[in-house]
Design brief:
This protein has one domain (about 10-260): 3-Layer(aba) Sandwich (Rossmann fold), CATH 3.40.50. Helix content is about 35%, strand content about 20%. It is built from ten helices and seven strands. It has helices at about 10-25, 30-50, 70-75, 90-95, 135-140, 195-205, 215-220, 225-230, 235-245, 250-255; strands at about 60, 80, 100-105, 120-125, 145-155, 205-215, 260-265. Strands 3-2-1-4-5-7-6 form a seven-stranded mixed sheet, sandwiched between helices.
């Protein structure tokens, strides 16, 4: 992935993307909690894909923003389609593209259509920004071939610090349509709880293969722990992260902030394919 040089005449969306790139890929860390959390989320996302799909598979990255996951997957040998509602970001991603097979399909994810179903789709940090996460997951599932995969990351709604409503408790999600698709944490609408993920998957014709909870308040720099991250050695922070991931399930769900899930699309018979 090429490193780009900041230009004052860039559009605002490019400048915002560059500020994230400084933390995520260029090593100019100003918020250690964000850097740790992003590193963990990236590793879990790529691992969930690599476990089930070899290079050469066709992958759509929805709401891919500055394209760091898209570009990484392309460099690993996957055939990637980048998508984002902000179409002007495609040219920013092109500036960073160094090698690998990547194509661009900007636009509203609810309106995407392709000539053939895909092997896998990434939906990382997007489902919490939509008013109808059930319809969003259903639409995503329609783009995947039977036996194909969806990998999702999203904040864990069961985390003790979450004060947003449960989607399953909302009688009319349409009231949030006017504020959906906004970026960053102030655009979060619902944070799904693990039990809700299973219900949404069933409705979309998906099987939940794996759910992983990760990133504790220290790792994330929450609860005024950012200063601790500046003095604690990385190896200790990572050990604490591993310990919290192995807490008993009821406590694990309350303490960990992020969720990664891998779904597999059911076949017409209702069972998933055995081969990859």
């Amino acid at each position: 992935m090429k490193q780009v040089c900041f230009q004052e005449n860039w559009p605002a969306s490019w400048k915002g993307s560059y500020s994230y790139d400084l933390e995520e890929v260029y090593g100019k860390v100003t918020h250690r909690g964000y850097a740790y959390a992003y590193h963990n989320r990236r590793n879990h996302t790529l691992r969930l894909l690599q476990e089930v799909l070899p290079p050469g598979a066709n992958i759509l990255d929805i709401a891919a923003a500055q394209g760091n996951f898209s570009l990484a997957l392309a460099e690993m040998g996957y055939k990637v389609i980048w998508n984002d509602l902000r179409g002007e970001l495609a040219d920013y991603v092109r500036l960073k593209h160094e090698r690998g097979d990547i194509h661009f399909a900007p636009g509203n994810a609810f309106e995407l259509n392709f000539s053939a179903p895909l092997d896998a789709i990434l939906i990382t940090e997007i489902i919490e920004h939509v008013a109808h996460p059930d319809d969003f997951l259903l639409k995503t599932a329609q783009l995947v071939k039977p036996g194909g995969y969806i990998v999702m990351t999203t904040p864990n709604g069961a985390y003790f610090g979450n004060d947003l409503p449960r989607f399953s408790d909302c009688p009319d999600p349409s009231v949030y349509e006017s504020v959906q698709f906004k970026p960053n944490s102030d655009g979060h609408i619902f944070l799904l709880h693990p039990d809700e993920v299973y219900r949404l998957a069933e409705r979309a014709g998906l099987e939940v293969e794996k759910i992983v909870l990760f990133n504790n308040p220290l790792t994330q720099g929450f609860l005024k722990m950012e200063m601790l991250l500046r003095v604690l050695p990385r190896v200790l922070v990572e050990k604490i992260e591993v310990v919290t991931q192995h807490l008993p399930a009821p406590l694990n769900r309350k303490v960990l902030i992020q969720m990664a899930a891998r779904f597999r699309k059911k076949t017409l018979s209702g069972a998933t394919l055995k081969g990859h």
